[in-house]
Amino acid sequence: KGKGQKGKKITLKIAKNSIRVSFDGGRRLDLSKMGITTFPKCILKLADVDELDLSRNMLKKIPSSIQKFQKLRWLDLHSNQLEELPEAIGTLQNLFYLNICNNKLTTKNLPEELNLLKNLHILNLGLNCLDSIPTSLGALKELTEIGLFDNALTTIPNSVKMLPKLKKLNAKGNPFPDSTKQEEHTDSIKRIETLHLVQEKDLCCSCLKMCQDERDKLNKLKNVTPSPSKKPSFPSLITPNSTAKDNQEEWRLR
Length: 254
Fold this sequence. Notes:
Helix content is 19%, strand content 10%. By secondary structure, it is of the alpha/beta class.
């Protein structure tokens, strides 16, 4: 039991043997599901990896020394017992993906330095204890996906909802006061694409002809009256034999 509470000790040899090649050719240090309770200091000697996976462990804290992993593009810390993140996480300027889902993070302990991750595309904050989202996350202009599901949120700031490249926002399982707002925040972001209108005189001949042809096709489709449906005729169809009739409850031609 004592050993179980201390968690597994990660040596440099174990860490080196846990390095894998990711799908894009980067180096991935995979220490997931290892029963780790404290951040292994030895992995600081492997700080040149591109990806670090410490998910599904029992970590309560990430040290400021995480800033040594300056090449990191992918950091997975989901399913631990993290109650806070270090301010130093904001120094990981190459970070593309950050998953801190399923921890014990509160809004108070989300460092403001998260808004410095200018290259972040995917951020997962789901399954935590967040009662609000910092408006400063609106500075993450490259975000395409953000997970906020299963928290204690009652609203989502417009600065986050209106991020220019955001394609997916999952906020299911939050106590939004209005059910219509919950539906509005769930799953994908719906946007109205910008429509550029031009006059016919501003189009070149080929573009004008293409537009006119498309318009004519649409008009033809609108003017077509649907013809009454006819039952298909199968004159060469062979009538099923008596054995088949006996073995099947009904034969029906549709």
